Amino acid sequence: MKDSALSASLLGWYDRHARSMPWRVPPAERARGVLPDPYRVWLSEVMLQQTTVAAVRDYFHRFTTRWPEVAALAAAEDAEVMAEWAGLGYYARARNLLKGARAVVAEHGGRFPETREGLLTLPGVGPYTASAVAAIAFDEAATVVDGNVERVMARLFLVETPLPAAKPALTRLAETLTPEERPGDYAQAVMDLGATICTPRKPACGICPWREPCAARAAGVQAELPRRSPKAEKPVREGTVWVCLREDGAVLLETRPEKGLLGGMLGFPGTDWDRGKTDATPPLAAGWQAAPVEVRHTFTHFHLKLAVMVSRVPLDAQPARGRFQPREAFRPADLPTVMRKAWEAAMAADPR
DNA sequence: AACTCGTGGCA
DNA sequence: TTGCCAAGAGT
């Protein structure tokens, strides 16, 4: 089958099965010349990096309600944006999102660059996101290569080389299929195919628009592709956080450094997690009480066992680290998930 | 080039 | 319960 026939059959499938999403313009509307707002496409694509559609939906709604256009986001406070992103993970995305919005305003007159090349200059926009925004928002014939596309190409062309080594070859194969007509619909179509039919386990080959040309299916190995190099085992790390409650209800919090794990996010003072708990020095002297259950949390590359210490202190307490936040200004939802778990453990130990 | 960086859902 | 991994980018 010719490449153009492959993309045509996929577009036909997409016309009938495109999933509805808040940031998407459906194919029938795109056919009438309607393109989506680049700001919303960019925002959704950044949120969707390594993140499921289900997890993104509510965050996308809250962000676009609070900051309807890029200029509004650019004018937001860092802490507001980080708090709104809390729970979604990969917090460098939120820091770069804000930098990107400010760059669009300051360096591009408030309008997004309209080419893949221009988009690549924005912080937090890499090869995938630049292609996605260029194709979806501007109908540039850019090739999107995400995890879905890698999987679909590995199966369609029976690529046995394990990832990530296979990535360049998979990218070249994907490029041969990208059509000049409707590249925006096509980009969304390949990803929809990977997300709904050509899934990692138990792909639904029986209803796949590409079942005939699929080489992996012909060989019966579709469920085994793409192969992946074995990944390193996750070490277990340990640490301690101190949850300090002042007499008036204020909570001791600190903003974490910009770089590194949970960078720029709010959290409780604590130890480093790459060393032991040996040099654990609390932020102030107090009657610290251990929460009965430790917090367990798994990050991308390690498991964490976190001890939670709780204390109550008088109004004149002077901590060496962090700042007391009035109880009414403190929302657990503003914390990254691991810190929210620590808060819940502290409340279980010492409810108020 | 390999490592860092979150979280939730699912089998 | 544990491991897998989802619309990746930065260093």
UniProtKB/TrEMBL annotation:
Residues 47-196 form the HhH-GPD domain. Its EC number is 3.2.2.31. It catalyses: Hydrolyzes free adenine bases from 7,8-dihydro-8-oxoguanine:adenine mismatched double-stranded DNA, leaving an apurinic site. Pfam families: EndIII_4Fe-2S, HHH, HhH-GPD, NUDIX_4. GO terms for biological process: base-excision repair; mismatch repair. Keywords: 4Fe-4S, DNA damage, DNA repair, Glycosidase, Hydrolase, Iron, Iron-sulfur, Metal-binding. Transmembrane segments: none annotated. Its cofactor is [4Fe-4S] cluster. Binds 1 [4Fe-4S] cluster. Belongs to the Nth/MutY family. This is Adenine DNA glycosylase. It comes from Cereibacter changlensis JA139. The gene is mutY.
